[in-house]
TrEMBL record:
CDD domains: beta-trefoil_FSCN_fungal_FRG1-like. It holds the Pfam family FRG1. Belongs to the FRG1 family. This is Protein FRG1. It comes from Hohenbuehelia grisea. InterPro entries: Actin-crosslinking, FRG1.
């Protein structure tokens, strides 16, 4: 609580972000799909939400594994310059209230935040530390996971797979999955050599709503642009292009060949008749 008696927000802020006010709904008792859509639109842009598709993964990212007995977050320790798996049960609210549920968890420290980026048009992403000098999460061919690379390459690429229940698996360039594994002594570590997606390979991932909205707007724009391009394609030329073999030769049926032959013959007869009439007319005036 601040000196003026107001409760100070403990929400994690990032440098350069602008604070926006949350819009209020006119009627909180509405129900149905349209109500849920309006409710999502009313979210604060900085609210942490679950992605519904791989394309939505971008910007600040919070990665949590539902380990037992305590869920853990994937952190980056700037002191040791290594990945650290942090027990979320250690984060006790300052006001002494009950800790939030797993789905209510949000990052409370910048070490818990990764920054997701991707090359346009690519299904793979890069995960860079949000603290320190910005190191990329990588995995070598032996499954050893680290965050000590300054530049991105094939070993720093991950393909996110969103499961039906909303959880996310991360596949590396070797087509192996990132997983939480128990090391000697009972400690937990990250590895990237799992062949299948099981409990250890599934993570809850949260992103900020403004980035999810931005991703969906871009996806919608691409679909609209694609539809516009398709309506502008000439049907005759496209059929000739995509339904022909060998130097653009059109392949037609025997009936079509007969019809074409007949049309050409009739065309030649018509041309000959016109030429004959023109010649007769010329002879008449000579």
């Amino acid at each position: 609580m601040s000196s003026d008696g107001k409760v100070r927000s403990t929400k994690l802020k990032f440098k350069g972000e602008k604070t926006k006010k949350k819009r209020k709904r006119d009627n909180d008792d509405e129900a149905g799909p349209s109500s849920r859509r309006h409710k999502e639109e009313d979210l604060d842009p900085e609210t942490w939400v679950l992605p519904e598709g791989p394309h939505e993964l971008r910007g600040p990212t919070f990665i949590v594994h539902p380990s037992d007995p305590s869920p853990i977050s994937v952190n980056y320790n700037t002191t040791t310059n290594r990945i650290a798996l942090h027990s979320l049960d250690k984060d006790v609210p300052e006001d002494g209230s009950a800790p939030p549920t797993l789905m209510e968890r949000t990052p409370t420290d910048v070490s818990q935040v990764w920054v997701t980026t991707r090359i346009a048009g690519s299904p793979t992403i890069n995960l860079r530390t949000g603290s320190g000098e910005g190191k990329f999460l990588s995995c070598d061919k032996h499954g050893l996971v680290s965050a000590d690379r300054d530049a991105r390459g094939p070993q720093e690429e991950w393909t996110p797979v969103v499961m039906p229940d909303g959880m996310v698996a991360f596949m590396n360039v070797y087509e192996k999955y990132l997983a939480v594994d128990e090391a000697a002594g009972g400690s937990l570590q990250l590895r990237g050599d799992s062949d299948e997606v099981g409990f250890g390979e599934r993570f809850w991932v949260k992103i900020q709503y403004k980035y999810k909205k931005e991703a969906n707007q871009e996806e919608k724009k691409k679909k609209m642009e694609g539809a516009t391009v398709q309506t502008k394609i000439d049907e005759t030329s496209s059929n000739h292009m995509f339904q022909a073999w060998g130097a653009g030769r059109s392949v037609v049926s025997s009936d079509d060949k007969k019809a074409l032959k007949k049309a050409r013959k009739e065309g030649r007869l018509a041309e000959a008749l016109l030429d004959r009439r023109a010649k007769l007319k010329s002879d008449r005036f000579c």
